[in-house]
Design goal:
single chain; Creatine Amidinohydrolase, Chain A, domain 1; 2 domains; 17 helices
């Protein structure tokens, strides 16, 4: 290595200087596992398209990447399985030579076989090849081409959906099954190579949150913190944020997926920062709540500590071998007791009449007053998608080794939540009792979110940004003192 190149590597953060990757053999093993589950059949999956904007390179779809490792756009993947033995083929689209001068070349069939261990054919031959396979009597399996399962039903006009709809119409009697449950079952347990990438995503994300703590101060804006966060994500090896960075100060912090990030940081407010980096396709997910002025008020401290206690209760009850419902229930119980003490609900088990009017006799948990201020669940899986499959999603709901997930309780106080409740006698009594406290704490949101790996011995916490009250205040104070009374990036 030349001296100049060596110097560049030495100056880079470790996460960039030596990148970890999932080995080709693991992708092949994933395909073999899926083939064993299928038995016999034809899998058809479509990858991401070339972006129609100039905001960054294409991002491959999680299920497609999981099986191939191939991240070029405009490709399809077909795997013919007979008696558990798989024959996989990538169908790729060549790029116009002039366009390649702008966006880069795509690998040819020789490079694909060498780098990915897959045979390759032109995309133009896909339909004819599938028509031939359809005559063989095998069932077909599809992987729909969506970015995240959260939005799988929002768009039925993707290339893959239209193609398979026309293909099935042309072959009367053809059986087409959804392959996502099979692939999700495989994706739910993370391998050692995947855990390395998830830890790196977590490390980069932690550096971003530390930078936000060093910077936050009255007079700045949400976008100042967003810039500091995303700079550190990139500097420590992330290819992009895992999702749109959420930086919500004051009332904006009570909107769960607020992503405008343009409001001011006002003295006395809390700012909820839900932001993380993605490393080689693997997502972290971290939230911290900061006092803009550098110190929590007494009410803010009480609310923050309540959320932190709820998080720790969930962690104690989310170890391998335990049902994850115990983590959810314990977190809700802690928050219910605390909110009752604060006067924000009438009692731990008090009920209200929620919008939509569920049957409270049959589903009392859906009608508890604690839900007004807690809104969301406390966890989801992590991996190639920020909401990835986890093993405890299915079966008996038990956490198992290889699960990677968040623990993220929150409390959000906004009197607007009271204003949208149905006008019933029970709700009127509830609102009259709690409104004075809610108005005092109005526009206060608190969320604390961390990422955990279920191991053979317990849970590994991988997002080590300051989170205790004293730690957060100390991190912000050190920055202020170092900068002579002003925040520094």
């Amino acid at each position: 290595m030349k001296k100049a190149a060596l110097l560049v590597v030495l100056l880079l953060p470790p996460s960039i200087a030596a990148r970890a990757q999932v080995p080709q053999a693991e992708y092949a093993a994933r395909r073999d596992s899926l083939a064993a589950h299928m038995g016999s059949g034809v899998l058809v999956a479509f990858g991401a398209r070339t972006p129609v904007t100039d905001f960054g390179p294409p991002t491959q779809l999680p299920a497609f990447h999981y099986l191939t490792g191939f991240d070029e756009p405009d490709a399809a993947f077909v795997m013919v399985v007979r008696n558990g033995a798989a024959t996989p083929v990538l169908y790729t689209t060549p790029i116009d030579p002039r366009v390649a001068m702008y966006y880069g070349r795509r690998p040819d069939s020789t490079a694909i076989r060498r780098e990915f261990g897959l045979a390759a054919r032109p995309f133009a031959s896909l339909r004819a090849d599938l028509d031939s396979l359809a005559a063989g009597g095998l069932d077909f399996y599809t992987l729909a081409d969506f970015e995240d399962a959260d939005f799988a039903y929002a768009d039925s006009l993707t290339r893959g959906r239209l193609f398979m709809r026309a293909f099935q119409a042309a072959h009367s009697g053809l059986t087409v099954k959804n392959a996502h449950p099979l692939v999700n079952q495989l994706r739910a347990r993370k391998s050692a190579a995947e855990l390395v990438l998830l830890r790196k995503a977590a490390d980069a994300s932690v550096e971003g949150h530390k930078a936000a703590m060093r910077l936050a101060a009255p007079g700045l804006h949400e976008y100042d913190l967003q810039a500091a966060l995303e700079y550190e994500f990139r500097r420590h090896g992330s290819s992009r944020p895992s999702y749109g960075s959420i930086v919500g100060s004051g009332e904006n912090g009570t909107q769960l997926h607020y992503m405008l990030d343009r409001g001011p940081l006002n003295a006395g407010d809390l700012v909820v920062i839900d932001a993380a980096g993605e490393y080689d396709g693997y997502a972290a997910d971290v939230t911290r709540t900061l006092p803009v002025s550098g110190k929590f008020t007494a009410d803010q401290r009480t609310l923050y500590q309540l959320v932190r206690d709820a998080q720790e209760a969930a962690v104690r009850n989310a170890k391998p071998g335990m049902k994850f419902s115990a983590a959810q229930d314990s977190s809700v119980a802690v928050r219910a007791r605390g909110l009752a003490r604060m006067g924000l609900i009438e009692s731990e088990d008090a009920l209200y009449d929620p919008p939509g009017r569920p049957d409270c006799a049959q589903r009392p948990a859906a009608c508890r007053q604690v839900n007004v201020w807690t809104i969301h669940g406390i966890s989801h899986g992590l991996g190639l998608a920020v909401h990835d499959p986890a093993q405890f999603y299915s079966g008996d709901g038990t956490v198992r080794e290889g699960d990677v997930f968040t623990v993220e309780p929150g409390i959000y106080i906004n009197t607007a939540f009271l204003d949208i409740l149905p006008d019933t006698p029970r709700n009127r009594a509830f609102i009259a009792k709690v409104r004075p406290v809610a108005e005092r704490l109005n526009h206060t949101g608190v969320r604390i979110e961390d990422d955990y790996i279920a191991t053979a011995t317990g849970l590994e916490w991988i997002t080590h940004a300051p989170r205790e009250v004293g730690e957060v205040e100390a991190a912000m104070k050190v920055a202020r003192d170092t900068a002579g009374g002003r925040r520094r990036p």
